[in-house]
Amino acid sequence: MINTYYSQLSIFRTIEQILGAQPLNQKVAAATPMYGAFTSTPNMKPFTTVRNQIPLTEGVATAPACGVDTLGQTGAAAATVAAASAARLAVPADAQSLADAWAAWITTQNLTGNGAQADSANPEQMNRYTWYETHNFSTPYPGDTRVYLPSEVPGGYVPNADSE
């Protein structure tokens, strides 16, 4: 077992050293090579896998083409897992107007498609949107006293050069 912190740059540095290539830039050159992750003798001891405890498709608005992750269940058990996952994602009736307001807000952001712009959404609003969506629009963002509408988010309005 190793306790060394490795980053993506460590992976690049290690691959470059294996291939005998020069570092791409100063950051890669300064990264720690992954010496501790490799040994000269293989460890053939079998290991026990740990199954996922949370479905990988939980929180995904549109189910992928391969279907909803049911944690390896089949038949009625799979249907039960899928139903439980859908129930956890259901927005309570009293929070539906908030969810609708946030759904309208997210459509005005340039997050996907041909017009996508990286980091164009206000980070305060985007953080709360992500939090609210994963907590069914019923749990306040950490540090807030209530769930806000997009227009009410503290720090949500940042004037730009065109509005001043």
Could you tell me the strand content as a percent range? under 5%
Unreliable parts: none
Helix count, DSSP H or I runs of 4 or more residues = 5
Q: Approximately how much helix is present in the residues?
A: 25-40%
Rg over C-alpha atoms, rounded to the nearest angstrom: 23 Å
The end-to-end span amounts to: 57 Å
Major beta-sheet overview? none
Output the helix-strand order.
HHHHH
Mean pLDDT score: 82
Gross geometry: extended
Class computed from helices, strands and strand pairing = mainly alpha
Structure, described:
It is a single chain. The protein is mainly α. Among the domains are: 8-37, no CATH class; 93-109 and 117-152, no CATH class. The chain is built from five helices and no strands. It has helices at 8-19, 26-30, 75-89, 96-107, 123-134. The termini are far apart. 8% of the residues are buried. The mean pLDDT is 82.
